[in-house]
Every structure is written in C-alpha cells, then in structure tokens.
Amino acid sequence: MSQGPTLQGLSHAAREAKSWPFEQARLLLERITRVRLSDAERDLAATLFQQGKFGEAVAALPALARPVVFETGYGPSGLPHLGTFGEVARTTMVRMAFRALTDDAIPTRLIAFSDDMDGMRKVPPNVPNGELLAQDIDKPLTVVRDPYGTHDSFGAHNNARLRAFLDSFGFDYEFASSTDCYRSGRFDPTLLTALARFDEIQKIMLPSLGEERRATYSPFIPISPKTGRVLYVPTLERHVDRGTIVFADEDGTLTELPVTGGHVKLQWRPDWGLRWTALGVDYEMSGKDLIDSVRLSNQVCKVLGGTPPAGFNYELFMDENNQKISKTKGNGLTMEEWLRYGTPESLTYYMYQSPKSAKRLYFDVIPKATDEYLQQLDALNKKRAEGDNAVQLDNPGWHVHRGTPPDKGSPVSFSLLLNLVSAADASTKDLLWAFIARYLPGATPQSEPLLDRLAGYAINYYEDFVKPAKRFRAPTDQERAAMEALVGKLKALPAGASAEAIQDEVFEVGKAAGFEPLRAWFSALYEVLLGQSQGPRFGSFVAIFGVDRTLQLIERALAGELVAA
Question: What's the pTM value of the predicted model, to 2 decimals?
C-alpha cells in the first residue's frame, strides 16, 4: 500500500515541534541511527540530518534505506474495537511525524499483526452457533470453525473484519498473520535460536510466574498432532541438533515435534520478543497494563539476538465511574456507538489527546471532542488564511488528517446543532437545514458536507441522550425579569443582526440583572428554555434559530408551557 501524501520539506519545523508524535519520532530516529550505524556513520548522519539532507544521508548510508517497521497487535478472539483503532491511529500519528521529520527519505512500514495462532480459551459472547465453537476450545483461532459460516475459520473471519475495519478508516498498513508466519517458516530461524537459548529465556520468565505455573512453564507451546489443541505443558526434552522438543500429549504419549513449521508456538511474552526479532520491528506502543510484559519481552528479544523496539505505554480508558473499560463488563463505549454520534475525525482527535493521561470514555465526551476538533481545525486554517502557509505540525488537525488537513471545517458547532435540534424538535436533517440555510445563505449539504454529517450525528445524539434527560424548570423572579428584558432587547434588534450583536445584548441584560457569576444567567437561559444546563453561545443559537422563534420560545417558557409539556 502507498504511504500516503508526500511529507518532504518539513524536517526543520518537525525538529521544533512539541506534540507527542514528534517527540516519539525524534526518539525513534535516535534509535535507528544508534542501532543501524557505526560511530563514524552516526557522525556523518548527524551532520547531514542537521543540514536537512536526509536524502543524501540515506544514499550515503545504505542501512538507513531499510524500512523502519512500525507494528500494532490484534487478538482475533473478538472483533476490532476502540482499543484496536486507538493503537493503529496513534501509531500512524508517530509514523507520519517520523516521515515529516526525515523529509520522507527513510521508508516506513506499518504491520498490523494478528495473534491468530493463539488457542481459543472460551466461547465469545454474542456470536452465533456457540455450541459449534465449544467443540473447538483450545484449538488455534485459525482452526476453530467460523460460527458465521463465511470463512475457513473463526480467526480468518475476524482477520477479515480487522482488514475491513482498518480499510474503512483509510489506514496504510500491511496485514500479518501469526499462523502464516509460523507455518511458512518465516519465524523458523528465530525459533531455532529460542530452542538453543531455552535456559536463558527461562531465567527471564520464571521469576515473573507464580510457584504452581513456574513448575510446568515452557516458552514453547506445542499443538497436539492428535487433537489439534494448543497445549500448555512442560518441555521434557530438547534436541537442539534436530530442532525438536519432547512433551507429553493429552493421552500421556511422549511426542517429539519440530519447533519449526507451525508445529509449536511461543508463549505470548516470548512470542512478542520473537516477533520483534524476526520481523525487525522498530516501534510498537502498548497499554500501561503491559509495562511488565514489555520489560520481559524486551529481555527475550535481546536473548534472541534482536534489539527491542522503541515505543511508549499509553494510559487506559475509564468509564464514567472511573472504572477500567472492560469488554467482559461491557462498560464504556463501543466503536459503533461512537460512530453513531460522532465523526471518525472526532474519535481520532480524542485518541490524539494526551495518550499518557487516563481519560474517561463514555457518551458525554463525544460533543466536547467534536467541537474541540472543529476549533483546532479552524485555528489551523485561520493561520493559512492570514498567509501563514507553514504547516501547523503541533495542531491536532495535522495529526488527525495524517498530514493533509482539509482547508475548511464546519461553520456551525456540534453543540449549537444539538441545541437547534432541541429547540426546533427537528427529527430530520431537512428540518435542520431549513434553519441552517437561513443562517448561512447559499449553504447546502453539498457545499458543507461536514456540517451535513454533523447534523445527522446531532439528531442521533439528541434523540438518544438529550431528549430523554430534558428537565424544564420555571424561572425565578430574577430570571423572569431578565428574560422579559431580553424580549425587549431582541425585538429592538435590526433585521439580520449578527450572532455577536445578539450575544452582546444577552450579556448586557444579564449584567444589568445582577447575575453573579454571569454564567448563571446563561445556565438559566438553557435550563428554562431548553431543559438543559449547558449550551453554546446563546447569540449564535438565536442567530441560527431565528429571533422570532426565540421570542416565541421565551414567551412559552414564561407562560409555563414548557414545564407543563
């Protein structure tokens, strides 16, 4: 697959960029030169890099012409989910930053690796034909029968879903299957090294295990030639000269198998080190819960003759109750749920933000993430409009759009659309566009495609979350007097008054009415008029909803009709 847009000419700005993907890219470049080059070559590379001559450096130092390999992992015992998306999205951000940092002179690859040779430990919930899968417990996922009846195996089905999932977001990647790597012989040389250095691997792994497991642990997991199941059994004999191990099969029969050709695989931590070594992985990130596993896999990688990849550990997502997101519990958000209420760009933006800080992942974050993304995109494009054509490498929009941010966002915020839907009780995009077209003369769904998409998301979000939670209240005496004063101010406005002019009048009314703090006045407007405590700038809402309709809404609220309804 193509790497995407050319990112040449950005190395100088990239060296100064402060955003985390560029910090990671600089660390990765330092690792590449340290691992691949001699001392003299590193001096030459540093000189050429400082001058921005990355093409010359690659031509003079062939080791730099070897692709830098990024990797992400996927467990196909279930379908792709938000964690899968987040890891690929964040790794892609670092990859794009690395390409910009090196003027696109050093080739890169992203491998999306599927651990599809793992044994299926239990029947996943919510799949058809569960009784069929129950018969294949402990067999490799690429042997387990497909409960959907569409592929050769359950692993193949989920791998196809992974590729379709990544393709739908336009990711540039290469798919790799654990089963294919083991069976094809791609891992064979490293597996033979692991057999020869069995004791060294055991010295790394055994101290990390409990006493009971330590007594039977082996880095090699054979696949029974009789039952086809993955066996977690001790290695009884090792024959380095012929590349085999001996173990007791399920019926107690001593069985000898080669460690090559897909007859055995490694336990997952040694397997990680094996993969880094055999595939030459230069960069892989992982969750904070895997810090100890990364440490052990790094040591195994070194024993196998490899160099551990660069990377960092990101924080895990929490639900609204600050509990860890769990597929088993079903808390938090699914991929499908986010994409019902928010754009893929808003999700990518949320993944970009502070990956080393824990963040809550639940429905309420979607509107905020959407509007923050739009604000960042507007800020980037404002610089362009002012004649600053330098790419804003530290703007999240650059990373969200993989180096090619669009030159236009949305003229209406998501929160404003939500309030418009609420006030107008709009159930279709056609009704919303009737208001939008008056606010933005000449605008159409075709001329404003992002706004049109946001309108659909706003309707879905309003129907599922805002409408059921709406709680209108009657105004206090102070609020009633202020709203009556606001009616007079709105009636006195000239036709076509701007959102800013309307906002100024609303502000002055609240100030004159003695609201302290002033935000209490705006909260009152939304609680009384819309049945909710938050909203966008009220002036913008009035401008798009219409002054006349807003006056009717206020009069209905003051008459008690909204509370009664």
Answer: 0.91
